[in-house]
Amino acid sequence: MNYGSALMTLRERLAGSYEPSEASAIATLVLEAVTGDDRGVLGLHADRQLTPEQQVLVLAHAERLAAEEPVQYVLGEAWFYGLRLYVDRAVLIPRPETEELVDWIVRDLRSAYPALVEKGPEDADRTDLLKILDVGTGSGCIALALKSAIPRAEVWGCDVSEIALNVARRNGSDTGIRVDFQGIDFLDEAQRKQLPSVDVLVSNPPYIPWSDKENMHGNVVRYEPHSALFVPNDDALIFYRAIARFAHKRLHSKGTIYLEIHEELGGAVEELFRSEGFGTVEVRKDMQGKDRMVKVTG
């Protein structure tokens, strides 16, 4: 099997589940990962032969992809805000809209705290006053991206899932980024007391009502962790309510909350935080024009 026939095989196996352009992109991504060659080399050297080990891996990946398993799980990696992260079925796959949330935070913090961005070798263990908590950290993507972008901040991530925390800690080790990951059931008020007071509280919590499950893509429902996706139909804002109450006790004055939200619940989330006494609530649309992010202050 050469590069050209490998790409053709992958595209054919994906044809039943993906549009041709998406199938081609996934096939190329897989072959890049298997061979270590970029797409330019793949195109120029279509007759280059795969090793027997590479051929076995391509066919194994093709089987998993044909069953609609997300390519990020098949390859065990996902890129997020410039970081190459390990992912498996214990955690959600990082998504572009979450990168938009992180970028919003980074831009705000770099403007407000420019001195915290610069860091030399002698500052490896130094932090200043800025403290950040990521609730429901999953793969650690948000916490690690923020620590990478704002090196002198002190960053924590918490999650109820120990297997998710294992992924987050692995990513911290692999990237050399220091974040304190803690096992906490954030819905348990007693456990929330173990968390520090912070200046920035960020979360991409579960927010999809179970009733939406039938309308979601099969590869999400079958492969991604339900505990990180779904909330009860009768209490879709359960995590936002817990975040608001935690913020009353542990968010420093002049602190800020940044949240990812369900595209249809922007108004409800805004109303919740206003009813909890927060003065400024900004709902922001993502690049697709959907209400997807909220910033809460005061």
TrEMBL record:
- Looking at its record, which EC class is this enzyme? transferase
Q: Which InterPro entries has this protein been placed in?
A: DNA_methylase_N6_adenine_CS (IPR002052), HemK-like (IPR004556), N5-glutamine_MTase (IPR050320), PrmC_N (IPR040758), RF_methyltr_PrmC (IPR019874), SAM-dependent_MTases_sf (IPR029063), Small_mtfrase_dom (IPR007848)
Q: What is its EC number?
A: 2.1.1.297
GO terms in the biological process aspect are: methylation
| Listed Gene3D superfamilies | DNA helicase RuvA subunit, C-terminal domain, Vaccinia Virus protein VP39
Q: Where is the Methyltransferase small domain?
A: 131-207
The entry's keywords = Methyltransferase, S-adenosyl-L-methionine, Transferase
What is the reaction catalyzed? L-glutaminyl-[peptide chain release factor] + S-adenosyl-L-methionine = N(5)-methyl-L-glutaminyl-[peptide chain release factor] + S-adenosyl-L-homocysteine + H(+)
User: What molecular function does GO assign, one term?
Assistant: peptide chain release factor N(5)-glutamine methyltransferase activity
Q: Which SUPFAM superfamilies does this chain map to? A: S-adenosyl-L-methionine-dependent methyltransferases
Any single Pfam family the record assigns to this protein:
MTS
- Domain Release factor glutamine methyltransferase N-terminal: start-end pairs: 6-76
Matching NCBIfam families, A to Z? hemK_fam, RF_mod_PrmC
Q: Any idea what this protein is called?
A: peptide chain release factor N(5)-glutamine methyltransferase
Species, as recorded:
Flaviaesturariibacter aridisoli
The gene is: prmC
